[in-house]
Automatic annotation (TrEMBL):
One of its GO terms (molecular function) is ATP binding. This is Kinase-like domain-containing protein. Residues 293-327 are annotated as: Disordered. Gene3D superfamilies: MHCK/EF2 kinase. Keywords: ATP-binding, Kinase, Nucleotide-binding, Serine/threonine-protein kinase, Transferase. Coiled coil: none annotated. It comes from the Eukaryota. Residues 52-289 form the Alpha-type protein kinase domain. Residues 293-313 have a biased composition (Basic and acidic residues).
Length: 327
């Protein structure tokens, strides 16, 4: 027997969060060469051409003008615009896709900056991602017993036909776009650039402990700050767009976020009392743990003694003054 009944079709899972005209762009990727945990790191440019799809200029140009002018309160259609948002500085985020994964492309929107200035700024941002990623791995290793999570630093190749690109500059930084909306919750701010705030729940206590750990592990040279995040589709909290304050080392080039020793001392003062009741800090013994920051001079003939935990050389990772070798 045949039935005329037709079950309602199950709606297909939406693959992308927004649908905007995209422009295919060729680019060369920059890689941070060398092991960031132990060696001097430097950027080298790949000769391989890759393709990233970036929102067409028509989908974000007006949004940028509106959001930076007198009509800054106007809402931008998040489903129809290539404009994702902007930071507290002159940084803009545009929609893109790479290998069918949604990305946010970062670039400064400042006509006074040269291409070299932009490259320096984005390289500093990428180094910051590498640093925070390395510290996060060490924190997880301690708590639970250089690819930077898909981030791309690249240089666009202008179209051979029009000699144009869809961004104001050829250099860009792209990071995987995190999901937002009712299914995933909203952005949560855990610490600021200068204020740590109260830790009144477990996830905030964990993030504050991570900031505390970064200061100890780096021998008081680096404090990760301005931490915010949201849950990904697997329910895992993801932190993004961090900043750092540094001490006793040359600052990251064009590091507008770095306020140095003053903010490190402010964090220590603000966190001192909360640390006593933060169960994550207590579990990790952050008030008493020590790390070996001196070069390991022990002979290899003493395998019975396990060496103390060694922190990686942050100066090499952050400064990385040596240029990439010519090829």
């Amino acid at each position: 027997l045949k039935s005329a009944y037709r079950p309602s079709a199950t709606p297909a899972t939406q693959q992308f969060s927004r649908h905007v005209p995209l422009e295919k762009c060729n680019f060369h990727r920059f890689n941070l060469a060398g092991n960031p945990l132990s060696q001097a790191a430097y950027f080298e440019q790949s000769k391989t051409r890759e393709v990233i799809k970036i929102a067409n200029k028509s989908t974000w140009t007006n949004a940028i003008l509106d959001s930076s002018g007198a009509t800054s309160g106007r809402n931008v259609d998040e489903n129809g615009s290539g404009f994702i948002g902007q930071g507290s500085t002159n940084v803009r985020f545009m929609y893109a896709r790479f290998d069918d994964i949604e990305y946010a492309v970062t670039f400064p929107f400042d006509s006074s900056m040269s291409a070299g200035d932009v490259q320096d700024m984005l390289e500093a941002e990428f180094r910051l991602l590498a640093l925070c990623n390395a510290l996060q791995k060490e924190f997880n290793n301690m708590a639970l017993s250089s690819d930077v999570n898909g981030a791309i630093l690249g240089q666009l190749i202008p179209s051979p036909v029009t000699d144009e690109i869809p961004l104001p500059y050829v250099f860009f930084l792209a990071t995987p776009l995190l999901p937002v909306g009712q299914l995933y919750g909203t952005l949560r701010k855990f610490t600021g650039n200068g204020e740590i705030g109260k830790a009144d729940n477990d996830i905030t206590k964990t993030v504050h402990a991570f900031a505390h750990f970064s200061l100890l592990y780096s021998d008081h040279e680096v404090l990760i700050c301005d931490l915010q995040g949201l849950k990904d589709k697997h329910g895992v909290w993801c932190l993004f767009d961090p900043q750092v304050h540094t001490n006793r080392m040359p600052r990251l080039r064009v590091a507008y976020w770095d306020r140095g020793l003053v903010e490190i001392q402010r964090f220590e003062q603000q966190h001192e009392v909360d640390c006593l009741t933060n169960w994550v800090c207590n579990k990790l013994r952050l008030r008493s743990v020590t790390f070996d920051h001196e070069p390991d001079s022990r002979a290899e003939s003493s395998p019975e003694k396990s060496p103390p935990r060694k922190a990686f050389d942050l100066r090499n990772l952050l400064n990385a003054a040596s240029p990439a070798p010519e090829t």
